[in-house]
Amino acid sequence: MSPGEFARKGAGLTIRYGWFDSPFGLALAMGTGKGLCGLAFAAETGRDAAMADMCGRWPRATFAEDSAPLAPWINAAFDQSGHANLHLIGGPFQIKVWEALLSIPSGQVTTYSEIAASVGTPKAARAVGTAVGRNPVSWLIPCHRALRKSGGLGGYHWGLPVKRAMLAWEGVRAKSA
After folding, report:
1. What pLDDT digit, counting tens, does each position of 120-144 carry?
2. What is the pLDDT of residue 96?
3. Angle at 149 (CA atoms; ends 145, 135), nearest 5 degrees
4. Within 13 A of 74's CA, how many CA atoms are on the CB side?
5. 16-56: per-residue pLDDT in tens?
6. 55, 13 in Cβ contact below 8 A?
7. Can you give the residue range of the structural domain that contains 113?
8. Are residue 158 and residue 112 in the same domain, yes or no?
């Protein structure tokens, strides 16, 4: 998303959404003509909270329930057979953090401190944690791969059971590859 689009908070943008089954429970997907702009998990938070969270990221957008155009991207996201286009909303620091998350191989983890160092701000682990938590397309930008320095799971926007399931699912797939 361009800086101008970011500043408009979705004004003039139509975002289509739909609910999908995923390996991690019910998922809410949102997208524009450019790609997925939101992916949330409702197993722990519930449908209403997931919807409110995602809609709150683009408060001036128009939302339309229409899962058909999102289905190919969602299928690609979970079976890794294709490419899921993304249309992200975020500030420059957030984008840097999300790019760092994308460089972590499936089945592996890192710490917030290591991410901070990799984006050139070694003392900004808390800011990195905030950027990780604002990731609008959970799973596709693998925020679940970020752990505390102690090795603890830390938090997860969509609930720790979902984070555990994601890490376990990736671990099994990495071992069988």
Report:
1. 999 999 999 999 999 999 999 999 9
2. 94
3. 35
4. 23
5. 999 999 999 999 999 998 899 999 999 999 999 999 999 99
6. no
7. 92-176
8. yes
Point out the domain boundary residue: 32, 49, 79. Answer: 79
Q: How far is CA 95 from CA 39, 92, 104, in A?
A: 16, 5, 15
pLDDT confidence band for 5 (50 / 70 / 90): low
Integer angstrom CA distances of residue 85 from 68, 72, 131, 157: 15, 10, 21, 22
- The pLDDT score that the predictor gives to residue 86 is 87
Domain boundary among the residues 79, 108, 140 is at 79
Domain of 31, CATH number, reads 3.30.160.70
CA distance 82 to 66: 21
Helices 92-102 and 125-133, axial angle in degrees (round to 10): 80
The overall pTM is greater than 0.85: yes
Residue 59 and residue 22 share a domain: yes
Number of structural domains found in the chain: 2
Which amino acids are annotated catalytic?
Answer: 143
Measured in Å, how far apart are the chain's first and last C-alpha atoms?
34
The structure tokens listed for 128 are: 């990195």
- Residue 93: band (very low, low, confident or very high) from pLDDT cuts 50, 70, 90: very high
- Structural contact between residues 24 and 44, judged by C-beta atoms closer than 8 angstroms: no
Flag whether 153 is in a domain.
yes
